[in-house]
């Protein structure tokens, strides 16, 4: 009987501590941006259905935005989505 009460009290305390940790985590991360999804040229090529060479050409023409991560070129998901939107409206051509 005493052992059961001890376990119950321990479980209550553990749950309370866990709630406090979760609340603290939420407070600390509130307002932080989610990390951007970055694609390689090869991945972007597959997503857009065009060649890697064409992806590079569009980047050089500044029709497709990209970022440099060290020596690598990466494309953000939102930039690829924006490119799709521009294609649909006729702006990307």
Structure description:
This protein is mainly alpha-helical. It has two domains: 1-32; 38-89. The chain is built from four helices and three strands, in the order αβααββα. The chain has helices spanning 2-29, 41-48, 52-60, 77-89; strands spanning 38-39, 67-69, 72-76. The protein has a three-stranded antiparallel β-sheet. Helix 2 (41-48) crosses helix 3. The radius of gyration is 24 Å and the shape is rod-shaped.
SS content category: mainly alpha
Number of helical stretches of at least 4 residues: 4
Low-confidence stretches: none
Radius of gyration: 24 Å
Succession of helices and strands = HEHHEEH
Number of strands: 3
Largest sheet: 3 strands, antiparallel
Distinctive features:
93 residues, mainly alpha, 2 domains, 62% helix, 11% strand, HTH_17, DNA binding, Helix-turn-helix domain-containing protein
List the helices and strands and how they pair.
Layout: H1 2-29, E1 38-39, H2 41-48, H3 52-60, E2 67-69, E3 72-76, H4 77-89
Antiparallel strand pairs: 1-3, 2-3
Short overview:
This is Helix-turn-helix domain-containing protein. By secondary structure, the chain is mainly alpha-helical.
